[in-house]
Each structure stands twice: as structure tokens, then as C-alpha cells.
Specification:
alpha+beta; 8 helices; 7-stranded antiparallel β-sheet
């Protein structure tokens, strides 16, 4: 039976797919924006194939097997002190958090245009802040629960991978130069999401649905947290994005800091 073949005790084997590079990492316009947002050179998406069926209930076993697999250990990179380095000590445990991923359009952002966050042109509405001189209603909505616009995106939608991706891009890296118009954020979010997420169409209803499973992951060695980075930071993240049908997993990674300032 399938359940017996995919028992909790099973381990997975992985193979690196170096030629599987998402298009956003090859798109000159997106790379220029990532440079502007201080994320260039600090963001990656490494893909691997795996050999057995994946079910959400065995996510922790899957992720632990991933970080212990020799083909992963020899190829996976994380950033420390501005340099890409391998995992230098064996992983002993992992934290795995399922992330909701159901969105097949950008409709959740439509309300931004009618609630006072944006002008009809897409330009961000500026607002006063005690600490930050260049502040706007979008930043306030993203960060502050007492913002009058905070609930424009509901609690469930805020947990969607699409929204988390959008927020990460809006916040950017250490020397982020923010946009005055929302279009670069929306368009870049859409392209990255499209590259990372797999969908399928029901042959009868023609309805499109997401098949990818998204897991926020963190790994620990005998010295403590080692991936995505030893120091915890809100803009440092790692998402394992699993396509259970193709049996591919992509580690989408960013380490907060000062990005590359040239292409």
C-alpha cells in the first residue's frame, strides 16, 4: 500500500538540479530591482529531485532527510558574513512550518487601490511616522496592526505564501531603496511566484489550483541554528517548495544584509 511505502520512518534521497534556474534570476529587469532593494546576491533558489512520494504529514521527515542528504550537503549554500558557504556541520534537527499556498491570481492586492493605500496611478500614499521620514500607507499596513488599513488583507490571506513573498520584497534588504509606485513590487512578486509554484487545471471544471506545498524551514546542528542563518532575522528566510507530482523541491532563500551594488 502507498501508506506503507511512505511511512513516517522513511528517508528520501535527493539529486541536485543545477540547470533548473527560475527565470526571475535570469531576468535583467528583476535583477536590477533586487539590486535596488539590496537583495541581489543574497537571494537564491536551488532545486533538487527526490525519489519517493511526498505527503504533508511527513514534512518533517522529508526536510530532515533533505538537510542530511550527501547530495544536498555538498551543493546547498547559505550566506555567512557576506559569502556563500556550505553547511559545515551535520544537521541534527529541523523546524518545519506549513505555509498556506492557494492563490492563483493577484486579486488579493486589488483592494489596495480603493482603500487609501494607493493613488489611482499606483503611487503610494505618503504618511507621517515618528521614526522613519520616508513612510507610506503600504509600509504601515504591512507592519502595524493599528494601521487603519491593516485589515484590508485578512488574517488568513496574510499567511498566504503570495502575501509573504510580496511583503519580503517590499521590506527588502539592509540598504533598500523603496519604490514610490506599487507596480514593481506587484510585477516582481507575480513573476517569482509563477516561477516557484506549480498549478494544475481540472479537466472537468477547468478550475486552476495550486499543487505545490510550501514549508518554511529552519535547520539546527550541534551548535544551534545553522540554516537559513545562525542569527535569526525577519528578512532572512528559507522556504522549501515541493512539487509532489514532479518530485522536485526548491529551496527559496534570502539572507538579510547589504546586497550587491552592481550587476
Amino acid at each position: 500500500m502507498a501508506g506503507e511505502n511512505c511511512s513516517f520512518e522513511q528517508t528520501f534521497s535527493f539529486n541536485h538540479l543545477p540547470s533548473k534556474t527560475p527565470s526571475f534570476l535570469l531576468d535583467g529587469d528583476i535583477l536590477k530591482l533586487l539590486m535596488k532593494w539590496s537583495m541581489l546576491g543574497r537571494i537564491s533558489a536551488q532545486s533538487y529531485s527526490f525519489d519517493q512520494c511526498f505527503y504533508p504529514y511527513n514534512s518533517e521527515t522529508f526536510v530532515l532527510s533533505f538537510f542530511r542528504d550527501p547530495n544536498v550537503v555538498s551543493t546547498l549554500r547559505r550566506m555567512e558574513a557576506g559569502a556563500w558557504v556550505p553547511l559545515d556541520r551535520p544537521v541534527v534537527s529541523v523546524d518545519v512550518e506549513p505555509v498556506q499556498c492557494t492563490q492563483v491570481s493577484m486579486e488579493m492586492f486589488d483592494a489596495f487601490y480603493s482603500c487609501g493605500i494607493l493613488r489611482p496611478s499606483g503611487h503610494l500614499v505618503k504618511c507621517f511616522h515618528d521614526v522613519y521620514p520616508d513612510y507610506d500607507e503600504l509600509k504601515q499596513m504591512l507592519h502595524e496592526e493599528d494601521s487603519q488599513h491593516y485589515h484590508v488583507v485578512g488574517k488568513v490571506e496574510r499567511g498566504e505564501f503570495l502575501f509573504l513573498l510580496f511583503k519580503h520584497l517590499c521590506v527588502g534588504g539592509e540598504l533598500c531603496q523603496y519604490e514610490d509606485n506599487i507596480d514593481p513590487y506587484i510585477n516582481t512578486t507575480k513573476q517569482i511566484y509563477k516561477d516557484l509554484i506549480s498549478v494544475q487545471k481540472d479537466p472537468e471544471t477547468k478550475k486552476i489550483s495550486v499543487v505545490s506545498k510550501v514549508l518554511k524551514v529552519c535547520a539546527y546542528d550541534d551548535c544551534g541554528r545553522c540554516y537559513p542563518q545562525r542569527r535569526e532575522e525577519g528578512q532572512t528566510f528559507a522556504f522549501a517548495i515541493v512539487d509532489p507530482f514532479k518530485r522536485h523541491v526548491t529551496l527559496f532563500y534570502h539572507c538579510y544584509g547589504v546586497g550587491k551594488m552592481c550587476m
